[in-house]
Every structure is written in structure tokens, then in C-alpha cells.
User: Which sequence fits this backbone?
């Protein structure tokens, strides 16, 4: 019997949730079936259901999911704002302007890291810094949760008490992991591994950061982003490979 994680209905061009995961994972290696189900629960996508209750996604559904994930990853938009974008597009209207949209083409020139689509995407500057109340609202968490995460070093404020956009992404991921019973104390090893990866990237780019040539320093920033992306992909691949080696997985 084919389960919810099975293949696709090629005749009707409908995909199971497992097939959707396979389509999305190339661009979004961190996406999971749980994440797709969460976005469905938030009514950002509404797949069809078979008489047995299995989800079946159209190609438009997959495109919609890709848009949601891209807006979260590249622009740090909360789901509420992404829903407004989708509602506007469903009504045939242009979505609201993205924060910092005029900076999306920033790169290192025709021969630099911004010369191809992936490089251009990585060159997008992060969004504005968030205040504490803004972070709580955007991540959908309470003050006590945030305080706990800060005590374990998972979420870190800047010197002025604000939060860089990456911290919003961290908060959302920690919250999602919490739904599976993973507490901040369980994530200390993940934080330690991330710190080691940061140190590894810094070993490569530190000499470039200290260079007197401004172009060389700019290249250091682009190189750091590229190395970070590769490191995340390697980490995801190693975790998936390790899980595949486990009996019954």
C-alpha cells in the first residue's frame, strides 16, 4: 500500500508529500516533511486529499511552497507577511515590495561571486535588525522561551539589545525542534558544531579581511557566505547519510 510518503500520481500530475520533499530538497536541503505539514497547517498551501486521507500536491502547490521557503530564507519574512504576498498574488495583484529589494543585485561584478544566480542570491543583504518584541512576535514565541534560549547561547542579542535577522531564523528552527521534544540543552552540541564551523571559515577568510584593498575585503565577505552555504549543505548531507545508515531508517 502506498503511504503519505510515497511517489507521484503522474497521470494527474499530483505529488505525494515525499515526492514534494524530493523536488524541494535540491534548493532547500534543510526542508523536512514536518516543515511541509507545518506550512499546510498554517494554510500557506492546501493540497488535495485522497479518499484515504493522503496529501496530493499539484505543481502549483510545489511552486507555492518554494516561494514560501525562499521568502523565509532570503528575506526573513514572517509567515504572516508571506501570507499577505500569496493573497495578493492569488488576487492577481503585485505582492508588497520586499525589504531591501533595491539591494538584491549587489554582487562582486561580472567575474565575482555575484555573477551567477546563486551568487546573486547569496549577495542579498540581510533585513533590518529586530527589537526584542519584534523577534518574539515574528517567531511566535514567549519571553520565557527566548530567555531560555539565550541562556544556552542559541539566540544572541547584539550590544544594543537588538537581534540580527539570522537570530529570527534560529528562533524559528529552535521552536520547530521543540515541537519534537528537543529542548535547548539538547541543542548544545549543534551550537558547538556551528561555532567550530564558524572558526573554520574564519581561518580561511581572516587574512583577506585584514587586507588593505577594499575589493579584497569585499571578496572576503562573499567568500565567507559561500563557505557557510557549503558547510550547511555538507552538514545536512552527513546527517542524512548517517540516518540512512541506521537500521530501519
Assistant:
Amino acid at each position: 500500500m502506498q503511504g503519505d510518503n510515497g511517489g507521484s500520481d503522474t497521470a494527474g500530475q499530483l505529488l505525494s508529500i515525499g515526492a514534494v520533499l524530493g523536488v524541494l530538497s535540491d534548493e532547500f536541503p534543510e526542508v523536512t516533511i514536518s516543515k511541509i505539514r507545518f506550512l499546510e497547517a498554517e494554510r500557506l498551501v492546501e493540497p488535495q486529499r485522497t479518499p484515504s486521507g493522503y496529501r496530493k500536491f499539484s505543481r502549483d502547490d510545489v511552486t507555492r511552497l518554494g516561494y514560501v521557503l525562499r521568502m523565509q530564507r532570503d528575506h526573513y519574512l514572517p509567515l504572516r507577511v508571506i501570507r499577505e504576498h500569496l493573497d495578493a498574488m492569488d488576487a492577481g495583484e503585485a505582492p508588497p515590495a520586499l525589504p531591501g529589494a533595491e539591494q538584491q543585485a549587489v554582487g562582486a561584478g561580472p567575474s565575482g561571486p555575484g555573477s551567477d544566480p546563486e551568487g546573486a542570491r547569496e549577495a542579498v543583504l540581510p533585513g533590518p535588525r529586530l527589537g526584542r518584541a519584534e523577534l518574539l512576535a515574528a517567531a511566535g514565541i514567549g519571553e520565557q522561551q527566548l530567555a531560555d534560549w539565550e541562556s544556552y547561547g542559541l539566540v544572541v542579542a547584539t550590544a544594543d539589545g537588538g537581534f540580527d535577522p539570522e537570530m529570527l531564523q534560529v528562533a524559528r528552527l529552535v521552536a520547530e525542534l521543540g515541537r519534537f521534544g528537543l529542548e535547548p540543552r539538547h541543542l548544545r552540541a549543534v551550537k558547538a558544531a556551528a561555532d567550530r564551523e564558524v572558526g573554520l571559515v574564519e581561518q580561511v577568510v581572516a587574512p583577506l579581511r585584514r587586507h588593505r584593498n577594499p575589493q579584497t575585503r569585499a571578496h572576503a565577505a562573499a567568500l565567507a557566505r559561500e563557505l557557510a552555504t557549503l558547510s550547511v549543505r555538507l552538514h545536512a548531507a552527513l546527517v542524512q547519510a548517517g540516518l540512512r545508515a541506521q537500521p530501519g531508517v
